[in-house]
Every structure is written in C-alpha cells, then in structure tokens.
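Changelog entry: the UDP-N-acetylglucosamine transferase subunit ALG14 record was regenerated in this release. Current contents:
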Amino acid sequence: MKTAYLASLVLIVSTAYVIRLIAILPFFHTQAGTEKDTKDGVNLLKIRKSSKKPLKIFVFLGSGGHTGEMIRLLENYQDLLLGKSIVYLGYSDEASRQRFAHFIKKFGHCKVKYYEFMKAREVKATLLQSVKTIIGTLVQSFVHVVRIRFAMCGSPHLFLLNGPGTCCIISFWLKIMELLLPLLGSSHIVYVESLARINTPSLTGKILYWVVDEFIVQWQELRDNYLPRSKWFGILV
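Regenerated structure tokens:
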C-alpha cells in the first residue's frame, strides 16, 4: 500500500513538472512568423516600458565580432536599454570587458556590475580539455546566474544574449530555475543570432532556438528556411 501511495505521488509530481516544463519553453506555444515583424524595441525585447522601476538587464559578451554586435545593438536601442538601467555584464575575456567599459562611459546614469565567466570551450581544445572547462563553466555560471536572477526580482528585466556557447549554459540554468521556482516568473531571455548567419544558424542558435523566450534573426532567409518560430526585424546591428 505504501508503495502504491509513493508511486502515485511520484507520478503526480512528475506530471506537474512536465506540464511546467511545457509552459516555460516558448517553443511549444509560439506560432511561426510569416511576415516581417514590427521593428519596435519594446515588442522586440519584451520589456515593460511602462514600469517605473529601472530596467535590470544582463548582457553577455562573447569575443571579437560577437562583442562588436552586442555593443552596436545596445547603442541602437540605447533609449530603451540604457536609460537609468542596471547592467549586469557577463564576459569571458578582458578585451571585451575593457571595450564595454569604454563604451558605457557615455551613459553615466547606468550602473554596471561585472561578472567573469569561463569559456565553455576553447578553440582547438581536446575532448578532455573541453569536458574540464565545461564542468568548470557549469559551476561558476550557476553561482553567477543565481545571484543575478534573484537581484532582478520585482523589476522589469531582460537577459540579452548572442554568440558563444556559454549562452547555452546561462540559458539552461535560468530555465531550470524557472522550472523549480515558479514564483520567480519568466527570465525573459532574448537571443539575437549573428548578422553573419544568413542561411543556417550557429551551433549555439540551433540549441537555444528551443529554449529562449525570444529568438531573433537578422535575415529573412534564415527565418523562412530554418527557424520558423524566430522573429525577423531586419538588420539590427
């Protein structure tokens, strides 16, 4: 009898979490787009502009071209993203951090907090080296993500990502928190695919397409031929 009760309890809990998982993964309830979406920053980035509280935004910088694209995106939407905002800046190389620090000086009203993330995988790394760095990144990123997510509670917030594989780890931790802690609400993860991806998505894009709340591409061909759930607003960077 006790075994039957325990089995029933496990089944109920498992069913509840499956339903919750379906609810937090936008892929299951987002319709495919067929036309160009309105290039409206509020709709594009899912921000509650009417809120009187400052926006809390997490931005992750990859390296090289990814950093350049992210900075141009922030600059193009500066009125929405950088107006009296609190920016949580994640980075994996010092050059990107310095580049952002130089850029953000123009917006003295923004508060910035820096978080260094290990790279999920180094270029030309062996399998063993990759496994080691991935485990280290998982642990370190979990600590950072938990701190940042709880700091955002009660305020309009956004996780803005593009580029490297570390974005996958960050997104997965956020979705796990949504799954286990429903009262936290949505993390509002927006992933912007690189301008260089015209016909096929990046490996990171292929993974995050199933996970993030909003997936944005910059070429119609990519949306129409490969990623029907994505949004296309034209060139953003």
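The first helix runs from residue 2 to 24.
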